[in-house]
Amino acid sequence: MKLKSIFLLCLLPVMASAQTNYQSQVWSPDNGDGTYTNPVINADYSDPDICVGPSGKDYFMTASSFNCIPGLPILHSTDLVNWRIIGYALSELRPLEVFNKPAHGMGVWAPCIRYHNGEFYIYWGDPDYGVFMVKTKDPAGRWDDPVLVIEGKGMIDTSPLWDEDGRCYLVNGWAGSRSNVKSMLSVRELSADGSKAIGQPVIVFDGNNTHHTAEGPKFYKRNGWYWIMCPAGGVATGWQLAMRSKSPYGPYECKKVMAQGKSSVNGPHQGGWVHTTYGEDWFLHFQDKGAYGRVVHLQPVTWKDNWPVMGKVPTKGYCGEPYLTYRKPKSEQSVLVNPVESDEFNEPRLGLQWQWHANYNQLYGQPTSYGFFRLYNNKLSENFVNLWEAPNLLLQKTPADEFVVTTKVRVAAKQEGNYGGLIMMGRDYSALVIKRLGEAFQLQQLTCIGADKNKKETVEVLADLQPTEKDKINYDPAIYEELYLQLTVHQGGKMTFAYSKNGKKFTAVGKEFTMKEGKWIGAKFGFVAEQPYGKGVVGFMDIDWVRISQVAK
Fold first, then answer.
1. Closest by alpha carbon to 388, among 422, 421, 428, 356?
2. How much of the chain is in helix, strand and coil states, percent to nearest 5?
3. Is the pTM for the entire model greater than 0.90?
């Protein structure tokens, strides 16, 4: 079986899994009384975009995934408040020589999802290689291989618009780091099938003097007007703009339609507008929460003098203010469900919450039918500095401001220096690992401040552990350690570790660590299994289960 086929078997969803109504213990936006509290997803779904499915009653969302694989997460909702993960649109990134290792911050930037002529489309800009598109008839199924629509550097934040006459237009922003041009938006015509450019780009907005860092445009048409909605002013400090014109190429009038105001929602940044079958308008956007990443908020949209005011409508003007709590959108069906977090590893496929830091390799790890996931040790490079270079980290997004991660693992160490454990990964990271030394183990805390700056790890020895089992054979024998590991995140991203031999009584160990975001992504937690550079067979770690729960008060 080819590697790609194995990957799809492990990572693409089946409808039975997609329909599971997982309920989080640590964050749910649905208040149960007809209202919701933002964020509707308290996890790092950066640059969210949304479209309505053919039924008019189903909503589909995607978000930036950068170098993380599988990429382009697909989420589904029937009420815009309760969301579940149903799959991914991207199984690998190319070129392979770049993305088969961690290419932090590269890859998928600010995608846009649309439904057109019986198919779902997603466009995104890879700032180093160009504009890409994937499509499918079933958003929970397999998506076609990516098509390179426009080759070149610097094009990001792409959004298509199919007009009533069948013509297709694309708006995009520009990455200053690649093109030396920023705060500018361009529109060009694509072929009717959206697969290639047939027109030259036209500048439709230059925000350098009044709306710096204009980016993330989304293209719409309403009542004969062409609309571009985009943020400006910076990810953590900006505001939302709306622009309108009678032509896709402008000229566009522009107004500020949402800003932080007196609310606690900084930004508020890039997102997508949706008009529902019930005659309502809503805007999904993100808020930058530092180490927790960019979480998803939902705001009502009120049209005032043909301008889309987002959030609380002001007495004067058109600049709204984010709501923290509001009534839920009208819907025929509203099911309490949240993006999945905990995992019993009881299925022969990897759960939809998990991503790798690089293109998947079958030797990173594989699911089993025996109630555990096997994560193989990755051999570190000869000149290893820190885990910023490790491609086999199995990670998921943080689900709330406070939470506890508890897991049961079994480390099989075949050589000196083999280790595995629990990690919180970002530009800074800290891990609680079980490491083989001689014929025994040590419990260690590995911490790196400035991993992205090639800083070295520090190691703190926490406990000596005798093996719980040893192989009785002479052929590549291993020693084993079965242990319960725990990670607790408190307000402000303060994190501590603990461990237990019986899963009942936990002992706090190590130093407190402050979470740090990754490159354009929030900090992520999960599993690490590594061993030193050199010859010989690799060890592994069997992950029995991982459960996410509330912090004890």
1. 428
2. 5, 45, 50
3. yes
